[in-house]
Amino acid sequence: MANANAPMIELSGVGFAYEDAERFTLANLDLRIDAGTVTGIVGASGAGKTTLAKTIAGFIPLNEGGTYRGAASVAGRVLAEGTLSEAAAAVGLVTQNPFNQISGARFTVREELAFGLENRSVPRDEMERRVDEVAARLRLEPLLDRSPYALSGGQMQLVAIASMVIMQPPVLVMDEPTSQLDPAGTRLVYDVLSTLSDGGTTVVIIEHKTELLHEHCDSIAVLAGGLIVQHGTPGAVLADDRLTSWGVGETRVTTAARLARERGLLPVERALPIGVDDAVEAFSTQTGAAS
Amino acid sequence: MTTTTLYLERTSALHRLNPVTKLVALLSIILAVFAVPHWWIPLGIVAVVIVPAAVLGRVGGRLLRLFLILLLPLLVVLFLIQGLFYPDGSTVLWEWGLAQLTTEGLLFAITIGSRLTALVLGSLVFVLTTDPARLMSALTQVGMSPKIAYVISASLQIIPAFQARAQSILLAQQARGLAIVGSPLKRARALLPLLGPLILGMITDVDERSTAMEARAFGATPKPTSLIIVPDPVGERVARWLMFLSAIAVVVLVVVGVIA
Q: Using the beta-carbon criterion (under 8 Å), do B133 and A107 form an inter-chain contact?
């Protein structure tokens, strides 16, 4: 058992190169994530975010050929030393493509949601309770009797997320979980993740929408060149001048504020706002209105 | 519910039966009709068991339609070929050039045709009245390996998965100027570019899906639980054994020559 101060997820000097690849996708990477927090991972396309997600979940090196070095542990346990099944019990992984997250062997969404629980031998009453609960949380009730293949991309993505949330892993790693969702669905997912985190689940989200990360994350880590080049509070990371050079987009609020500063509407010495609340405060102060 | 099979959702006693009971009944019927060398046995089973079962299961209309579309053309061809061109036929009833309608050919066609009718109609009644999800759960409950159940279910589901992928590739290619118009041959040729990405895409999907299955603990325990519990009353279990033993008895009687 890990001591109380140890991080939930710890990657030390982790490097990984896929078979026949010319370079390491992850190069000597260090990352510490505390229990019960929500951490966003950002980076340019091809920066290795999916590889990092699979590494945290233990699928690298347990299920992927290549050159691996360093150590990744979850709750003090080095996943690479155990089995894939043990790793999967410790970390829930939602993959990028919901189409492939669907088991392909269940005929209704209800059964699809229960698939993982069946594999873990969860008693039927408990399964039914959890299916109803997760369906209510992600508003999937109208879809429960439909075929998983008769869903839209966004609906399928919600089912894929629900099918992992229902397993209640202590750590949940999600690779671009809202890529196909509308704004309402996206908000729903983030609300669920916040609730899970409040209940003690450690959540890691790979996401391009920096506004959402600013709003919901405790910390953000930037992945560039196979390394974590910045890791801190959303405010600190998203205000970093090097952000765009790492291939990460600043929030629209920041972009708008930068334009406003160029036109003299905000003082140069003032830090650029990141979220809507920061912006309201910045402009209120500037115009002398009560904030 | 959107399904990928012919299953029709109805409320009937046949639907409520444990799918394994229906499967054993079907297999017993197939065993009996192929073992007994009399054409009237399969037809009798169709008339006394299969058709009433379809009516009881409220799938009679669909069964008739499927019979007309699938089986009737096959039976007509069978009777034409075997009835008119049976090589060992000696009792000629009617002839026209090379075609000879013989008693032996007619009997052969009736025997094969009646067996085929019992086999196809019996299987159709089974498929029309059996929810595939319940079937898989019931088979797992009676001891079938969850991995084999997965393979069967995944095979049934692969068609809509294939359709969905094909549709998206087709749209992407049409958006880039692929024209699917003109003669059937032209249209078929235009669909060729679909095959490469479709098959390659399905192959690369396997890797990601296997990751997802591991993440969802597939195979983590040899005895997974099941969300769907299919009732299996003692009466049905006894009936299954009786049907199975009766079918075996018929085969034995044929082999030892009591039924000839």
A: yes
